[in-house]
Specification:
It is a single chain. By secondary structure, this protein is mainly alpha-helical. It contains six helices and six strands; from the N terminus they run ββββββαααααα. The strands form three sheets. It has a two-stranded antiparallel ribbon. Strand 1 and strand 2 form a beta hairpin. Helix 2 packs antiparallel against helix 3 and helix 4 packs antiparallel against helix 6. The model has no long low-confidence stretch (mean pLDDT 84).
Amino acid sequence: MSFTTEPTTQAKLYCVNHPQTETLLRCNKCGRPMCLRCVQRTPVGYRCKECLGEQRAGYYTATPFDYALASVIGVVLGGVSAFVMLLLNFGFFSIIIAIFAGPFAGGIISEVIRRLCGKRRGRYLGLATCAAITFGALAILFLPALLSQGRLGVTLLNLGFWIFLALALSTTFARLRA
């Protein structure tokens, strides 16, 4: 009994997106040949970016009402939190307060929005909420300064406020992104 090693003659596969790149991988959902640049490893195997996009699209269940609700709540809570932060203007200590209060406020705002939206996810829900928070915070920042006609420069130099706003926005976006 002799064992012979015969070379297997399989047709060479080339990536669908990069025709010059030879590959042995296939998407385990659609079966198209893909190179390492075009697939992503998942717990169930390699998937192409198109199949992953279709799969992720099922996660986004937010309605237009959810976006409107998140925007209104973002403006209101962003304005309230900015007002509180402006009241806590204690010079250097406002920076320290902002470092702790910014993420705290962002977490509260994002959790209120998540619960009011029924924990539905939206592709741009975090972005819409951050825009609304920014609008509400800047309205609180500029409105009193414009009404008093003179303290706008002092108000804009409040470093604690800007640190607070940046940290609140980043926390909200991170918690609401899909």
